[in-house]
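User: Predict the complex.
Assistant: Input components as received:
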Amino acid sequence: MLSRTWSSIARVGPQALAGSNVVSARQYSITAPRPLEIAQKLKVTIIPGDGVGPELIYCVQDIVKQTGIPLEFEEVFLSEVHYTRSSSIENAVESIGRNNHVALKGAIEESAVLHTEGELQGLNMRLRRSLDLFANLVHIKTIDGIKTRHGKKLDFVIVREQTEGEYSSLEHQLVPGVIECLKISTKPKCERIAKYAFDYATKTGRKKVTAVHKANIMKLGDGLFLRTCEEVAKQYPKIQFESMIIDNTCMQLVSKPEQFDVMVMPNLYGNIIDNLAAGLVGGAGVVPGQSVGRDFVIFEPGSRHSFQEAMGRSIANPTAMILCAANMLNHLHLDDWGNALRKSVNDVIEEGKVRTRDLGGYATTIQFADAVIDKFRI
Amino acid sequence: MLSKLTTSARVAVRHGSAASAIRTHKIPGQRLPLAKYGGRHTVTALPGDGIGPEMIEHIRKIFSFCHVPVNFEEVQVSSSLVGVNDLEAALLAIERNGVAIKGNIETKHDDPSFKSRNVELRSRLDLYANILHCVTIPTVPSRHKDIDVVLIRENTEGEYSGLEHETVPGIVESIKIVTREKIERIARMAFEYATLNGRKKITAVHKANIQKLGDGLFLKVIRDMSEEYKNIKFESMIVDNASMQLVSRPQQFDVMVMPNLYGNIISNIACGLVGGPGLVSGMNIGSKYAVFETGTRNTGTSLAGKDLANPTAFIRASIDMLRYLDCHYHANLISDALWKTLVEQRVHTRDLGGQHSASDVVNCTLQNVEKIMEAER
């Protein structure tokens, strides 16, 4: 230590010592190359949502607190069922913008009651629209210790467009008994979702992108999507591109799911495939996801169910939410923390001593979180 | 003496505080990020030859320490590899991400069939404007004080068109091409840049007394355009005189706009005046893409791997890039920390007469970043 200080004083050049501020040159010492730590804690927004959402989010907060992960939280409550207590969308947007453009979110229950006259869009849709979260990304990965029907190792990603298509909220009754739902596809939005899928594949070193469509029936709408994907693929010569019709994709997923790497698809198909694929690796409780826009990203479980029945019973599996938090840490370039958190979750599940009900055990949400904290090493 | 005072007063007034003297200026033009997801940009990194790879490592270190919302996609291009595939890959990567930071790629002088990859990159991506900001840093030894000049160079045509042939043995024709369209856009860039950053004067550098048509067109287009910008003084100067003026009284210049080859020479003179190749960064801006590199394009092969090369130019190139990406907070943060390192703490590498290594400069800058962040809390 002492020699270090001496050598650093010696290394302050003669020119600096000859200068006017000799004192400041002496006070200053160069330390050894420092490890890559961070200068301050990072703030993120949390949106607990409905059902078991709050339990899962608090479980993550508990883990963060106990393990010293450098995160701070700001809570924004958004709910459609408890609409009187709900904060406004504008508040949520502002909070996320303030906190590194990142949020961790539980599922928000869609209410069947229309509070505003003529408003067909749910809270989820409006949040997505105002943050322009055009892509939903779900990472389907088998975790050692969870039994699956096919027993194969899966590791693929589903990229879903989530701002247009069937979810445009344009529905009307022409004459009594005849209803038109409009599915809108636009070139710029097709382009950016395709580019996102390929950019993601490039960044994570994946080899293949599969576009899922129904262009044989919807020749114009899905045709546009397919053609745009083909065009974008030309910019990525190192990534293999193929296309598959949605019905065949479903069959392939349940029979030979290991063939997929990155899948990109329009809104409604994505919704269905997300849930189908989540079922392949252990259900809604273990699959993390994220909604990505240009400026913002929200981390939320891959299949967005509020699981109202389990509310307050501490039986929900927090794996998905904890993995979301781990992905969030990676996104914030806190890779060491993110990887450590992911590893501790995988270790707990692989060991199989602490299992929640969906995985055939009797442990509570809290017990699972405690087990994760015990396993956490950094 | 008087001119010195007025210049430093001008610098102080323009920037508010001393540390912001090296902050990157605002860059004109509307930009839509091509690869920004969840608030994070993806940027292509081309390490190049010589000291490039270690410099990219320094930038990575600084960026992750400061939480800069930028991810790198690294693509290797170097002159040692045979074939053009790697250059194609790099071009595609820049077209996808829109922005790149780049170390220099060595050009083999002797082989006429080998096109400079740097020139190739610039012309294929249509990076028409090369912008350098040369400003003296108080503690860095230099012959002149208070230099603050912006050099804007046309980057895609003129002498660099690559059209040379030997008509009969012993007679070689090199063709210099100038077009009104390209002069107009470089002139527009210069005037917009000056307006946006509150600059007062634009000097067009030319050789229109000899090349009456080629450089004459350059001069005419810029002079015509200057009519639109009443607040900016316009003057022209012949390149030989400009070189002399630059080494004798560089403080008189504010913004200089130049055709390709003159720009190359003048910008090297200006870089030399303020302390050498290790200090100044250069931006290459096109209508769709931008590539950031050091101001004078040297590979520094002799310094590679020794932790000696001055990282300042590269750090400033990364700051330029952050400005271009509209990450103004991080751009100013790193810029001010670097200023503190160079001016207040005098952590200088050998090229500036100091004894420090490149990683000392980087580590010291990180410490300053931490201090600034703490002070802000």
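The CA atoms of residues 47 and 105 of chain A lie 5 Å apart.
Let me know if you want any component modeled separately.
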